[in-house]
Design goal:
With 328 residues, this protein is of the alpha/beta class. Helices cover 47% and strands 19% of the residues. The chain contains 16 helices and twelve strands. The strands form four sheets. The protein has a five-stranded mixed beta sheet. Keywords: Plasmid. This is ABC transporter periplasmic solute-binding protein. It holds the Pfam family NMT1.
Amino acid sequence: MDIDTQQSALDELHADPGELPVMRARFEHNGSPRYMLYTIKRFGFDRDHGFHLDVELVSDELEGGIETVEAKLHEGDADLIDIDYISAARERVNGAPIVAFHPYGRTVGGLVVPEASSIEGLTDLRDCRVGVVRRLDKNWILTRAACLEYHGFDPEAEATSVESESKVELTRMLRDGDVDAALQFWQIIPEIVETGPYREVIPMADLVQRLSGADRTLPISTFLTSESYLSETPEAVRGFKRAYVDAVERLRTDDEFWDELGERMMYEDDPAVVRDGWREMVVADWDVETTAAMEQLFDHLLEVAGPDALGVDRIPDDLFQLEVPQPQ
């Protein structure tokens, strides 16, 4: 199912916003947030909470070294995106006026190889070509940190990382044999392994929990907006937080609705497989303990892998906004 077909399904749900504040959501066409966005629109959770969510799906390619959704937020063409908090910290440190105001989930991926591959674990990555969307991708950061901590080598030095610059291109590289393994995003892995012949060697979610030492699901991806939108339209940001919780509840409890999502918003995936993975990944809300655990994981990755691997040496104090400010 191509991007235009998915966008048409969303456009059918876009009514006139009227007097409601508009939040422009720009998300990748093959990213898992589209299931949640469709749910909000399908059941009118945005209107229930006093705002209009305008959803547009975009390419997953890089623009100037950053993801398309990041570029749209920086350029003022979006009010809502999701990226991992390490990337958000990197952008904030470099002067981008962005803030993370709500968690999304443990949006990482997995190491995928051909079925006949001899790669069975991280130790087998030496001398291999490993496909990554970009070297600053969270999956590569986690892999480097885990290899350094548990196996005593850095795959950036002892393997060859090959950047694809998009998830679609990464899948092509794996299928064409341009790489020996690929660190693909979790929501795309079912499509690859089901249409085979490929297998997932290691879920990155396991590395997140092991490296962080956290017991509960730790969000890696967060919802971001600009400082100006947060200060000028706080009612829409608060409304999105509430609509998101409603959507998460629906997606956690309504198995039959996932069949509709499969028909309208998926490619070749089994809706039940995606549903189960989504439910394991998603985080409905956060608190100071959550962000403390996120910072602890960051500090550990920084200690093990170093600032060059992360592309940033700290999380700015003002990146996470747990409470939306009241209008002045």
